[in-house]
Design goal:
The chain is an alpha/beta fold. The protein is built from four helices and four strands. It has helices at residues 11-23, 34-44, 60-70, 84-92; strands spanning 3-7, 27-31, 48-51, 74-77. β1 (3-7), α1 (11-23) and β2 form a beta-alpha-beta unit. α2 (34-44) runs parallel beside α3 (60-70).
Length: 98
């Protein structure tokens, strides 16, 4: 089964994403902070990470860079920010999609 790690601090968004992906047949884990997401990525070994940019403890861009430094896991940025500069930063940090 494909494993997806959702790193999202808003519980409503995290639950919405988790439910949608779970109903489609994916195994989904949720981390509420960036540091917890980095820890879980090492133990869960996800096939895909859905990553929020605005996290309470560490910026999502930094999480992306750290994930990318040690893995080729797929990373999709999920954020309310729609500014072109933010998209470029996310993609340059190693995200596969925004």
């Amino acid at each position: 089964m494909t494993k997806i790690l959702v790193i999202e601090d808003d519980p409503n968004v995290a639950d919405f994403v988790k439910q949608g992906l779970s109903q489609t047949g994916f195994e989904v884990e949720v981390a509420e902070t960036g540091y917890r997401g980095l820890e879980m990525a090492q133990t869960v070994h996800p096939d895909l990470v859905v990553l929020d940019l605005m996290l309470p403890d560490i910026d999502g861009i930094d999480v992306c860079r750290q994930l990318r430094a040690g893995s080729d896991v797929g990373i999709v940025m999920l954020t309310a920010r729609g500014v072109v500069g933010e998209k470029v930063r996310g993609l340059e940090a190693g995200a596969d999609d925004y």
